[in-house]
């Protein structure tokens, strides 16, 4: 058996999340099905990052094992089986010990707020016409980098063993028609980025102070945080691995 990493992009709007679920249309479920059809083997992928329902990805990775030797032209055939909202970008030949999730160093997410109504961006942003003070958003982002316990920003009914996350960077930028939040961390909790975005926006709109934001973060109570940011604006931008890992594309 040979191990491969598969690099994918997807639009999450029509899917019930990433992870395979019985009787539900999911990203992983469709990828596994396409691989089984093409390779004619029982394939079960393991992902680097499980995105929530409606969340998009410019880059995500999975790994799988197969006895079939995969070639570059196989990418075309696998894509022809997949739904149009999922695309295989690359496949890499790996060692048996390589792991899509455990070998990842960090994941980068962006969240996109649309300032002016645009019908072509409706499925990829949160239309947010309210007055926002960008400098206050930046101040809130600094508070995120300084902490490690994100219990307050994790939705309930999660099966994690720890709520500790290492935030490498967090910042807001303004473009012509969007305000974009970018965060890089070693791991994330269920609903964490959307909770961080919506609660920071309360600071940016002067609904709460920085002191109140920190009090929410320190409370360990997710009911005090705001999770109203819709999935449509959230993108998994990239998964970072050691430079030596992805050296053998098929």
Task: Supply database-style keywords.
250 residues; Alpha-Beta Plaits; alpha+beta; 9 strands; 9-stranded mixed beta sheet
SSE layout and pairing:
Blueprint: E1 2-10, H1 27-39, E2 46-47, E3 56-66, H2 74-81, E4 86-94, E5 106-114, E6 126-127, H3 134-145, E7 167-174, E8 178-185, H4 192-204, H5 210-219, E9 234-240
Parallel strand pairs: 3-9, 5-6
Antiparallel strand pairs: 1-3, 1-4, 2-3, 5-8, 5-9, 7-8
Name of the CATH class of the largest domain: Alpha Beta
Q: What is the CATH architecture annotation of the largest domain?
A: 2-Layer Sandwich
Secondary structure tally, helices: 5
Estimated helix fraction: 10-25%
Using the coordinates shown, work out and report the CATH topology of the largest domain: Alpha-Beta Plaits
Strand content: 25-35%
Low-confidence blocks of residues? none
Characterize the biggest β-sheet: 9 strands, mixed
Which series of helices and strands comes N to C? EHEEHEEEHEEHHE
Look at the structure and give the mean pLDDT. Answer: 94
C-alpha Rg (nearest Å): 19 Å
- Straight-line N-to-C gap: 16 Å
Could you walk me through the main structural features you see in this protein, from its secondary elements to its overall organization?
- This protein is α+β, with helices and mostly antiparallel strands.
- The protein folds into two domains: 2-103, Pseudouridine synthase I, catalytic domain, N-terminal subdomain (Alpha-Beta Plaits, 2-Layer Sandwich); 106-237, 2-Layer Sandwich (Alpha-Beta Plaits).
- Helix content is 22%, strand content 26%.
- It is built from five helices and nine strands; from the N terminus they run E-H-E-E-H-E-E-E-H-E-E-H-H-E.
- Strands 1, 2, 3, 4, 5, 6, 7, 8 and 9 form a nine-stranded mixed beta sheet that branches.
- A hairpin with an 8-residue loop joins strand 2 (46-47) and strand 3 (56-66).
- Helix 1 (27-39) packs across helix 2 and helix 3 crosses helix 4.
- The longest helix is centred in the first third of the chain and has 13 residues, at 27-39.
- It is globular.
- The protein starts with a strand and ends in a 10-residue tail after the last strand.
- The mean pLDDT is 94.
